[in-house]
């Protein structure tokens, strides 16, 4: 990632002719380096993920789960892994849920997928990688995957099928077509679609990324880093809990939240607290919950929310403990 | 021509609705657009991702928001296919 430092060096010293060592110079340098790096990463990584996605439609995931999911642990793992790269818009939660259950995917496995897909968000991944390195990005993926894996297993073990709205099972038919017709898209079309999606996404979230990095560079070198660390720092045992409780109703486009989170970490908030906050914003979304109510009854909804919330809080404390 | 937009009411569904409206105005196509938000209705089309664009009961786009131009192209293609059939 050295190249972005050189790029920022060139712009700041040779093009803008700013003097070395000043606060302003540092801030501008920081801003240019981070924005160029993040936008480059967003472009490359989102493009790659969207391209892979074009091969992995929900219909394919479903037939994969039904066909290869004889071993229940393997099925959970599979649902977990495909959850990382498959598209997930909260409005697809309900049709996806019904589609899975109809085809005979076990309830627990369906939930593993429902938890994994929004918890591990590719934009969050890019930003974490770009701003803090691969270790933190890996921790983020791993904790999301573990939560989804065990969350699904618990829901499966509790035998909660009775809390699924009756009409979902009414439609269960044996004639669900699991043979997925190969969609005839050429390589060129896939690339074009992936590229368009990437550009649209960057257009949508770009402004938030810039604002976030701008705020961070504004504080670079000046900010009283001790301030936030005092409120949400390692000395406050309730910090993770509070962060998660604030995060849940805050649901927004996940990407919009990331600069805020990176800001928090820079200002001395421990990684676990920040991660917990971010995951609660993306994983537990109010709109999705309201939509899911159409297919599952309140007790199951509560168990689902409870498991996810508790796991996220636990992850937060665990990482604060491991990486103080 | 009957065009339906299936979706549970998120921003993507609304964007698809707007783009489809634009497409119809651009192409001056005599069509009625319906929004379908009821899950049971949506499931009849055997889709797992929303939003979905249905032209005369045929699913033409699912899980994405195409541009008005792309929608118009698809609608024209559908009209041509139908002429061939009849």
TrEMBL record, chain A:
<feature type="transmembrane region" description="Helical">
    <location>
        <begin position="299"/>
        <end position="323"/>
    </location>
</feature>
<dbReference type="Pfam" id="PF03773">
    <property type="entry name" value="ArsP_1"/>
</dbReference>
<feature type="transmembrane region" description="Helical">
    <location>
        <begin position="38"/>
        <end position="56"/>
    </location>
</feature>
<feature type="transmembrane region" description="Helical">
    <location>
        <begin position="139"/>
        <end position="158"/>
    </location>
</feature>
<feature type="transmembrane region" description="Helical">
    <location>
        <begin position="235"/>
        <end position="252"/>
    </location>
</feature>
<keyword id="KW-0812">Transmembrane</keyword>
<feature type="transmembrane region" description="Helical">
    <location>
        <begin position="264"/>
        <end position="287"/>
    </location>
</feature>
<keyword id="KW-0472">Membrane</keyword>
<dbReference type="InterPro" id="IPR005524">
    <property type="entry name" value="DUF318"/>
</dbReference>
<dbReference type="GO" id="GO:0005886">
    <property type="term" value="C:plasma membrane"/>
</dbReference>
<protein>
    <recommendedName>
        <fullName>Permease</fullName>
    </recommendedName>
</protein>
<feature type="transmembrane region" description="Helical">
    <location>
        <begin position="110"/>
        <end position="132"/>
    </location>
</feature>
<keyword id="KW-1003">Cell membrane</keyword>
<comment type="similarity">
    <text>Belongs to the UPF0718 family.</text>
</comment>
<keyword id="KW-1133">Transmembrane helix</keyword>
<feature type="transmembrane region" description="Helical">
    <location>
        <begin position="205"/>
        <end position="223"/>
    </location>
</feature>
<feature type="transmembrane region" description="Helical">
    <location>
        <begin position="77"/>
        <end position="98"/>
    </location>
</feature>
<dbReference type="InterPro" id="IPR053166">
    <property type="entry name" value="UPF0718_permease"/>
</dbReference>
Automatic annotation (TrEMBL), chain B:
<dbReference type="Pfam" id="PF13192">
    <property type="entry name" value="Thioredoxin_3"/>
</dbReference>
<protein>
    <submittedName>
        <fullName>Small redox-active disulfide protein 2</fullName>
    </submittedName>
</protein>
<feature type="active site" description="Nucleophile">
    <location>
        <position position="10"/>
    </location>
</feature>
<dbReference type="InterPro" id="IPR005243">
    <property type="entry name" value="THIRX-like_proc"/>
</dbReference>
<feature type="domain" description="Thioredoxin-like fold">
    <location>
        <begin position="1"/>
        <end position="75"/>
    </location>
</feature>
<keyword id="KW-0676">Redox-active center</keyword>
<feature type="disulfide bond" description="Redox-active">
    <location>
        <begin position="10"/>
        <end position="13"/>
    </location>
</feature>
<dbReference type="InterPro" id="IPR012336">
    <property type="entry name" value="Thioredoxin-like_fold"/>
</dbReference>
<dbReference type="InterPro" id="IPR036249">
    <property type="entry name" value="Thioredoxin-like_sf"/>
</dbReference>
<keyword id="KW-1015">Disulfide bond</keyword>
<feature type="active site" description="Nucleophile">
    <location>
        <position position="13"/>
    </location>
</feature>
């Amino acid at each position: 990632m050295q190249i972005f430092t050189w790029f920022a060096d060139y712009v700041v010293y040779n093009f803008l002719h700013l003097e070395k060592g000043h606060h302003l110079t540092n801030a501008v340098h920081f801003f240019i380096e981070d924005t160029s790096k993040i936008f480059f990463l967003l472009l490359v990584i989102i493009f790659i993920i969207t391209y892979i996605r074009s091969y992995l439609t929900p219909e394919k995931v479903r037939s994969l789960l039904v066909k290869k999911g004889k071993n229940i642990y393997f099925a959970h793992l599979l649902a977990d892994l495909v959850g990382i790269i498959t598209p997930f818009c909260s409005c697809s939660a309900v049709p996806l849920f019904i589609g899975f259950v109809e085809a005979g995917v076990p309830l627990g496995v369906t939930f593993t997928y429902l938890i994994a897909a929004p918890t591990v968000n590719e934009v969050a991944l890019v930003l974490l990688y770009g701003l803090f390195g691969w270790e933190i990005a890996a921790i983020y993926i791993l904790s999301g995957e573990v939560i989804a894996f065990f969350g699904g297993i618990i829901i499966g073990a509790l035998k909660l099928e009775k809390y699924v709205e009756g009409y979902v099972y009414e439609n269960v038919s044996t004639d669900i077509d699991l043979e997925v017709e190969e969609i005839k898209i050429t390589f060129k079309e896939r690339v074009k679609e992936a590229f368009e999606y990437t550009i649209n996404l960057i257009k949508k979230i770009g402004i938030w990324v810039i604002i976030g990095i701008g705020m961070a560079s504004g504080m670079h070198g000046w900010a009283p880093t001790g301030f936030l660390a005092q409120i949400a720092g390692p000395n406050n045992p309730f910090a993770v809990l509070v962060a998660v409780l604030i995060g849940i109703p805050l649901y927004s486009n996940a990407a919009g939240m990331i600069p805020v989170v990176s800001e928090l970490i820079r200002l001395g908030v421990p990684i676990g607290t920040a991660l917990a906050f971010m995951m609660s914003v993306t994983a537990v979304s109010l709109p999705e919950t309201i939509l899911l109510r159409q297919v599952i009854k309140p007790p199951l909804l509560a168990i689902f929310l409870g498991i996810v919330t508790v796991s996220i809080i636990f992850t937060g404390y665990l990482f604060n403990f491991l990486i103080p | 021509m009957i065009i339906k937009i299936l979706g549970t009411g998120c921003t993507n569904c609304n964007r698809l609705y707007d783009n489809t409206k634009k497409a119809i105005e651009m192409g001056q196509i005599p069509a009625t657009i319906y929004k379908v938000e009821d899950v049971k209705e949506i499931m009849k089309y055997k889709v797992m991702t929303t939003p979905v664009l249905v032209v005369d009961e045929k699913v033409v786009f699912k899980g994405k928001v195409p541009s008005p131009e792309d929608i118009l192209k698809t609608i024209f293609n559908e009209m041509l296919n139908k002429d061939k059939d009849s």
